[in-house]
Design brief:
Blueprint: H1 16-19, H2 32-43, E1 50-54, H3 61-73, H4 87-93, E2 100-104, H5 111-119, E3 131-136, H6 143-154, E4 160-166, H7 174-177, E5 181-184, H8 190-203, H9 210-220, H10 224-237, H11 244-251, H12 256-268, H13 271-283, H14 288-307, H15 318-334, H16 341-354, H17 384-387, H18 404-410, H19 415-422, E6 424-429, E7 433-439, H20 448-462, E8 467-473, H21 480-501, H22 503-512, H23 522-525
Parallel strand pairs: 1-4, 1-5, 2-3, 3-4, 7-8
Antiparallel strand pairs: 6-7
Helix pairs in contact: 3-4, 5-6, 8-9, 9-10, 9-11, 12-13, 13-16, 14-15, 15-16, 19-20
């Protein structure tokens, strides 16, 4: 309209990670050990000329450095509680304080840049009490730059403070480390992240489900900045609210329902159900590595339930929980070397079923019922002799009648090839073909070079050209390795029993107040 000016107001949204950056030490989360030491130094005039803050991303390294710069230069004096209202505090908060020189070492690695920066260190600060150099990712400096920095660190001017931050302190020269006061920042715990996010979202008037906050905390990996960034994204995704299902969809995670479904199949010993669930998850693009991590956490929760006597709510007995946790953990580690994540995930689940403590299921809680007495008055539980009965040996023999465990002992093989042979059983033999079955628990031993080494040794032993075929499966017979372990255990028990029943040994123990230490059978000691 004529005669009137138009005014345009630009509304800008500030992300949570910047909006909620702590303004003083009291607002920091999860770094109490660092805050306590810094506050004591500030309040008792015990100031160092150089501080090094180390830790993973987003845990508060540069934030602490800026608060420290504010504490050193506040117009009301050096204190652990800067006023936050004076011109210096406001300028530092707005990143325009002339005596706070922030440097990103990743982009300024040249020695000329460092020298130019440090040449100005000799001049007094323009506005503040101290000239503060904040060098982020200091480990990225070149060797020449570190040498230039070292000269200033050795004889720093009284008006200069160095605040160094890095995610990789191992790359910082020892000569620099020794001249800094070092603080290791911790990864922020999931509980602290959840509690902080809950307070933040309540202040922002954003409704949030507890499960959604827990997912964010897990995804953040100890980084509060990452947690706030994910929260920003999730609020936008959820149209102003945080829901657990939305977080699962947004991050491409597998929900608790899917994990519970896998646990039910394991408890029921349902291999077909596990493979069907795996195929369904593959179609949805699930991260099998992350899913194995979820299973590890689930078994940890079950172990905690048992520890606090919540057996009524657990699906597995204590033995199964411990075993499956270990199998899942090994599977999680081996996901880096499996041919593809889906097969590695399925193999881990099938291994759990193969080694389940209970024959009829994968370790469901057994009903505590006393075994009925037999006609002779003994308990129905198996005795020691029954419990130690070895698994049957394969009835398949070589053409000359030799058993597999005897043949393995004379084969000219060693290392992984011998381990592969000893963990297998003979399931077929002719003058042309030898067929072995490898225990599924040792399937990682199987590869082409080792199989060829066994095949060559068999040809030499049999004096004929034979082909070796090895399949993988759950073996029912006793492998040579299992036989060797059983026989060693029997020798050990026999040796201990002989000494415990020997009157001379017992009289010596009684006379001198001694006890039996390590017992080793003579034939084992000679090996």
């Amino acid at each position: 309209m004529p005669g009137k000016s138009l005014q345009c107001t630009i509304m800008s949204y500030q992300v949570l990670a910047r909006k909620l950056r702590p303004a003083d030490f009291s607002e920091l989360v999860g770094q109490d050990h660092v805050v306590r030491a810094l506050c004591h130094g500030l309040d008792h005039d015990r100031l160092h000329h150089a501080y090094l803050f180390t830790g993973t991303r987003g845990v508060g390294k540069t934030t602490i450095a800026r608060i420290l710069a504010k504490s050193l230069n506040c117009e009301h004096g050096v204190s652990s509680k800067p006023c936050g209202e004076c011109s210096v505090c406001e300028e530092i908060r707005e990143n325009r304080f002339v005596d706070l020189i922030e440097v990103d070492a990743a982009s300024r690695t040249r020695v000329d840049d460092t020298r130019e920066l440090l040449d100005n260190a000799q001049y007094l600060p323009s506005r503040g009490r101290y000239k503060v150099y904040l060098i982020d990712e200091v480990h990225m400096l070149s060797a020449s730059s570190f040498n230039a920095l070292l000269k200033t660190l050795e004889e720093p001017p009284e008006h200069v403070k160095f605040l160094l931050a890095t995610t990789d302190p191992k790359k910082v020269p020892v000569t620099v480390l020794s001249r800094c006061l070092q603080f290791q920042l911790k990864n922020i715990s999931d509980d602290n992240i959840v509690a902080h996010l809950a307070g933040v979202l309540a202040a922002e008037d954003v409704p949030a489900e507890r499960g959604a906050l827990e997912i964010i905390a897990q995804a953040a990996g100890g980084s509060m900045r990452d947690a706030l960034s994910i929260t920003d994204q999730a609020v936008a995704f959820g149209a102003g609210s945080l829901k657990q299902d939305d977080l699962v969809d947004m991050l491409g995670l597998v929900g608790r329902a899917e994990v519970d479904g896998l646990l039910k199949c394991l408890a029921a010993g349902d291999a077909a159900g596990l493979l069907e669930a795996s195929a369904d998850l593959a179609e949805r693009g699930a991260d099998f590595n992350a899913l194995l991590g979820d299973l590890v956490r689930a078994f940890h929760e079950l172990a905690v339930d048992h520890a606090v006597d919540k057996r009524a709510t657990a699906q597995f007995d204590e033995q199964a929980v411990q075993l499956f946790y270990q199998i899942a953990l090994i599977g999680y580690r081996d996901m880096q070397i499996v041919p593809d994540p889906k097969s590695g995930f399925e193999m881990t689940l099938l291994r759990m079923l193969a080694f389940a403590p209970d024959e009829d299921s994968a370790g469901r809680i057994p009903v505590a019922v006393a075994q009925p007495a037999q006609a002779d008055g003994t308990s129905g539980e198996p005795g020691p002799a029954q419990a130690q009965m070895p698994a049957p040996e394969s009835s398949v023999r070589f053409p000359d009648g030799t058993a597999w465990h005897e043949a393995v002992g004379s084969l000219e093989i060693s290392g992984v090839a011998r381990m592969l042979a000893e963990h297998s059983v003979l399931v077929g033999c002719s003058t042309e073909t030898v067929e072995l079955q490898l225990d599924v628990a040792h399937d990682t031993l199987l590869d082409e070079p080792q199989q060829q080494a066994i095949e060559r040794a068999l040809c030499e032993q049999m004096g004929a050209s034979v082909k070796l075929k090895i399949t993988v499966g759950t073996i029912q017979e006793e492998s040579p390795a299992a036989r060797r372990e059983r026989e060693a255990a029997e020798r050990q028990r026999n040796a201990e029993a002989i000494l415990e029943s020997d009157q001379t040994v017992q009289s010596l123990l009684n006379e001198f107040g001694g006890r039996l230490g390590a017992v080793k059978p003579l034939d084992d000691a000679a090996r």
